[in-house]
Write a structure and sequence with these properties.
The complex is a heterodimer. Chain A is mostly beta strands. The radius of gyration of chain A is 13 Å and the shape is globular. Chain A has no helices and eleven strands. Chain A is 0% helix and 55% strand. By secondary structure, chain B is an all-beta fold. Chain B contains no helices and twelve strands. In chain B, strand 7 and strand 8 form a beta hairpin. Classes of the chains: A mainly beta, B mainly beta. At the A-B interface, strand 4, strand 5, strand 9 and strand 10 of A face strand 5, strand 6 and strand 10 of B.
């Protein structure tokens, strides 16, 4: 069983479209995250939820909106996609905030905006 | 300012060589956590190790070993007798443990691309 699963793995879309990436974890973790990896492979946090409550909201355009229907799911919705949004987006979860336990990552979603 | 610095962008070695990946971190917190992750060509991020700031004991796991030195703010990673399958990007990361608003945030270094040639 996959611990942290994201769908889709690849997403190609046109500028201006709206898209969503789904994430689910079956580890029973309380905290979930979204990270963005740019073309130079730099990883940076975007959002963090703990028990469905937003606890980290990095400086991210408000076109990006996370939604956590329950603590096992954290979806990422992106409105009005731009070329610069092309990146790999990783979902992750940890038992408690990262400081206590390691985070486990999904396989990533490669988003390409054309 | 970069909290985690991996000065080596790329390293190439031949199989069976030992290789050390450097990681230097910066934090004012007394409680913090350090991590190494591996990203193979397939793209997933694989957790390797977690170390807290109160435990400076070095760790060995098979061919992998980690050297944590608070005096130099370094957390270096050594692969002994490298193999082709070790080829990947390796990331060092820091989490600060004492600030509520940032608890949980992982600060990543920019990664070191390791290529092991047969």
């Amino acid at each position: 069983d996959t611990a942290v699963s994201q769908t889709p793995k690849y997403l190609v879309t046109q500028m201006g479209n709206d898209k969503s990436i789904k994430c689910e974890q079956n580890l029973g973790h309380d905290t979930m995250y979204w990270y963005k990896q740019d073309s130079k492979k730099f990883l940076k946090i975007m959002f963090s939820y703990n028990n469905k409550e937003l606890i980290i909201n990095e400086t991210v355009p408000n076109r990006f909106s996370p939604k956590s229907p329950d603590k096992a799911h954290l979806n990422l919705h992106i409105n009005s996609l731009e070329l610069g949004d092309s990146a790999v987006y990783f979902c992750a979860s940890s038992q408690r905030p990262q400081g206590v336990r390691e985070a486990f990552f999904g396989q990533g979603t490669r988003l390409t905006v054309v | 300012a970069q909290k985690v610095t991996q000065a080596q962008t790329e390293i190439s070695v031949v199989e069976k060589e030992d290789v050390t990946l450097d990681c230097v971190y910066e934090t004012r917190d007394t409680t913090y956590y350090l991590f190494w992750y591996k990203q193979p060509p397939s793209g997933e991020l694989v957790f390797l190790i977690r170390r807290n700031s109160f435990d400076e004991q070095n760790e060995i796991s098979g061919r992998y070993s980690w050297n944590f030195q608070k005096s130099t703010s370094s957390f270096n990673f050594t692969i002994t007798a490298s193999q082709v399958v070790d080829s990947a990007v390796y990331f060092c990361a820091l989490s600060e443990g004492s600030r509520g608003s940032t608890l949980g945030r992982l600060y990543f270094g920019r990664g070191t691309q390791l290529t092991v040639w047969p």
